[in-house]
Design brief:
Helix content: 25-40%
Radius of gyration: 30 Å
Signal peptide: 1-17
Keywords: Signal
CATH topology of the largest domain: Lipocalin
């Protein structure tokens, strides 16, 4: 009787301990989890994800942001039609525009390497003569040709305009050069305004650059939000070409640093600022 009592007590203790520990949670399959919690904007048909092993000129293996198994897309037609922008590398964040035909759901019409798009892109801009808008281009060219070399060297300095695209959809303008206001007012030339981009987004295979409100050195930029839409024309290596809504194509060059891109313009501006200070102190 004692043996049965002892066995019963032991069984009860074991059961109680098991209840206290509770059941082990089921093991989660992390391979099926979403790799990004961000969701595409309303109306955006594009599929976003990471490029996986197995990518080539004819195929793209994509791990979608929403998780699940990698999807293999046929990109042969996209490659032939020059609609693959960037050199796709494993681990890159890419955008895929799937074929609109129902029977071709795993065929892509366009592929964009968004990681390679994140960079500083610039293009050269030359100043124009002030107050000569009423003159023909030929007359303006003649005035410029007759300018003394010292004036040309001092004022006709090219600047690099463009933008830097960063993570988390952040964008920064390139092209702003600090010049003394008096120097700028006395200059015989003027530069076009620099688009002050603050955000960027991919949407249906296009690039959306946003000029949002921001404050810089106490000055409010972009009082009204403006969105510029661009179509990809070319992107490979250090070259990028975009087309705006009017069909105008602008080429860009990949720059290593936004400040270094305008080093010559900054040096010229500093030289003019120093010259103005000396004249004031005379």
């Amino acid at each position: 009787m004692k043996v049965k009592t002892i066995l019963a007590l032991a069984l009860a203790a074991t059961t109680l301990a098991a209840c206290h520990r509770g059941k082990k949670p089921p093991r989660m399959d992390n391979s099926k989890l979403a790799i990004s919690l961000s969701k595409p904007a309303k109306g955006d048909r594009a599929i976003y994800g990471l490029a996986c092993l197995g990518c080539s000129d004819t195929a793209l293996v994509l791990l979608p942001n929403g998780g699940g198994d990698p999807v293999r897309y046929n990109i042969l037609d996209a490659t032939r039609n020059h609609q693959v922008f960037g050199d796709i590398e494993v681990g890159d964040w890419v955008c895929v525009m799937p074929c609109e035909e129902k029977d071709e759901k795993n065929r892509a019409d366009m592929v964009i390497d968004l990681d390679q798009l994140k960079a500083t892109w610039t293009y050269p801009v030359m100043p124009k003569l002030r107050d000569v808008s009423h003159l023909s281009k030929r007359q303006q060219a003649r005035i410029l040709a007759n300018m003394p070399d010292s004036i040309v060297d001092t004022y006709m300095v090219p600047r690099q305009y463009g933008f830097t695209l960063k993570r988390m959809s952040e964008a920064m303008a390139v092209g702003r050069v600090m010049v003394n206001k008096d120097v700028d007012d006395d200059s015989p030339v003027e530069y076009p305004a620099v688009p002050q981009y603050t955000e960027w987004h991919a949407y249906n295979g296009k690039l959306i650059l946003v000029q949002g409100q921001r404050e810089l050195d106490g000055v409010v930029m972009n009082e009204k939000t403006k969105r510029d839409t661009f179509t990809f024309v070319y992107m490979k290596g250090d070259s990028l070409a975009l087309s705006d809504r009017e069909g105008r194509i602008q080429g860009f060059h990949r720059s290593l640093d936004a400040m270094k891109a305008n080093a010559k313009a900054h040096a010229a501006a500093e030289k003019l600022n120093s010259k103005m200070k000396k004249e004031i102190l005379k």
